[in-house]
């Protein structure tokens, strides 16, 4: 099963790469590479599946605590995130472009991985743009120990997924098109259904 997921990971990674590669986007009209958002949803679902696969039994048998899980997750994402953030700061001219006060606010949001909660592209795409996805993963990790308890009764987990999904669809319908990305595409709360879907597949 894991080998199959590895193969799927490669396919969807290429989809995301193609969607962000301007050479491909500008010179090749390939529909596959224009659907990068599907690949992003896949990776969030895969995260839910893999984490449930690795930790469901440990939580059910009380072999791990919420605190231990959270510390392990933080240690996994923050060091590399901070390193890439510092590299982005060193290589960019963000202070000059945005001003000192805005720079400090944007940097603090990126440093703490809260940038994706602010529906403005100069926040969620500031410095290291892909870090918005880490912001989503951070929320998933916070919620996971509480969500995994629902796996004893999948109806509760399914109900949580359906409620989140329905609210997301309704919310998107009433959101102006120019605001969709900030409120629904990068926002960790509205990405939670992807993660829960992965847990349900497990």
From TrEMBL:
One of its GO terms (molecular function) is acyltransferase activity, transferring groups other than amino-acyl groups. Residues 5-201 form the Acyltransferase domain. GO terms for cellular component: membrane. InterPro entries: Acyl_transf_3_dom, Acyltransferase_3. GO terms for biological process: lipopolysaccharide biosynthetic process. The chain crosses the membrane at residues 37-56, 77-97, 131-150, 157-175. Keywords: Membrane, Transferase, Transmembrane, Transmembrane helix. PANTHER family: ACETYLTRANSFERASE, ACYL_TRANSF_3 DOMAIN-CONTAINING PROTEIN. This is O-acetyltransferase OatA. It comes from uncultured Parabacteroides sp.
